[in-house]
Amino acid sequence: MKTIELNQPVTAANDKDAELLRASLSDSGLLLINLMSAAGSGKTTLLSRTIRDLKEKVNIGVMEADLASDVDALSIEALGARSIQVHTGGCCHMDAFMTGEALAEFDTTDLDLLFLENVGNLICPAEYDTGAHKNVMILSVPEGDDKPLKYPLMFEKSDVLLITKTDVLPYFDFDLDAVKERVLHLNPSIRIFPVSAKTGDGMDAWEAWLQGSLSAGEAHA
Amino acid sequence: MKTIELNQPVTAANDKDAELLRASLSDSGLLLINLMSAAGSGKTTLLSRTIRDLKEKVNIGVMEADLASDVDALSIEALGARSIQVHTGGCCHMDAFMTGEALAEFDTTDLDLLFLENVGNLICPAEYDTGAHKNVMILSVPEGDDKPLKYPLMFEKSDVLLITKTDVLPYFDFDLDAVKERVLHLNPSIRIFPVSAKTGDGMDAWEAWLQGSLSAGEAHA
Fold this sequence. Notes:
Two copies of one chain form a homodimer. By secondary structure, chain A is α/β, with parallel strands linked by helices. Chain A has a single domain, classed as Rossmann fold, CATH 3.40.50.300. Chain A has helices at 15-27, 43-54, 71-78, 96-104, 147-150, 152-157, 176-186, 203-215, and strands at 2-5, 31-37, 60-66, 82-87, 113-117, 134-140, 160-164, 191-194. A seven-stranded parallel β-sheet of chain A has the order 4-3-5-2-6-7-8, with helices on both faces. In chain A, helix 3 links the parallel strand 3 (60-66) and strand 4 (82-87). The termini of chain A are far apart. Strand 1 of chain A pairs parallel with strand 4 of chain B.
């Protein structure tokens, strides 16, 4: 079998904007978490459950990036959390400049934690530093256990991997141990939390990590 | 809730290359089908089943586009079908120029039908005409029934929508009728086939469409 390489340069002009944005957020004591995944992996469902579980303890806001629709921001707003919908005009990822533009329009007063729900895409968002303090990614069980082999960059760039929809593990050929091994081979320092936002299984470990990041003052790092 | 628009130009310089490539394929009587979907929706599994079902009647080849790995082309080759692995060097989609480069390296002698398995991504591939005669997309049940609302372009650009993994419908909140209605609202002429490559349910209608496209001489259109 023949294999051919089509090399394309990837822009890195975004990195300086990201450093400035991150420093500015740290100064104001706001922790920004960039949440990435393929379309359909359940980012909004995971966020909704997290907000419901933590809202008495942590003031959480959400910036919902999407190509065109408002369905995700409406879901978050229905939970009583502050949210803003960002339309990327067809663009397949958020970068630091776009994140800064969205932040300039968003009232972050009294917020402890701000999620950027990136565009649903397992590839492009991993290439652009958004200025967030932490990158968190989702791999849902139905997507398959070969994803770390096929889309390594996002696994390499993430601080946390949430393996979601674990409630449907019995119905899919998904080898959880194999995924962990593949991911840790790419990124030995990543934290891995298998969760089901539907049943609540595993959510406590993920939420403890979030609260630990807040109390450790990650935003001031 | 506030909504802000971040407009970005989308390149269209690719269209002329695509027309030339399509004309050249038509001249040689080879039908090229561009298969698109999010990562993890089961493109390779669907193709593998299709090849197994049709290989006595149709000579099928596959160009597997991926960021870096060879796992999909190896799966296809194991079925005895001719395949080539295209590494996009991190690029999140195939365009007509890249498709032409891959074709130049691929022996298409005696092939009736060639699939381009595009990079797993529900967004960017829809923006680039690859030169294919038909666009076919996959939406798998676990991805959710809101995808036509959130990623409308691919649904608008596709001739066929395969709704896959229907065997797990009982385990997900997925309203098949709502999806059909949303998709037909975006694209009234799209053909929709619900299928399970695992059980074989619905594969006959999709395969009949493929054979119909071949015998109607779509490649010569």
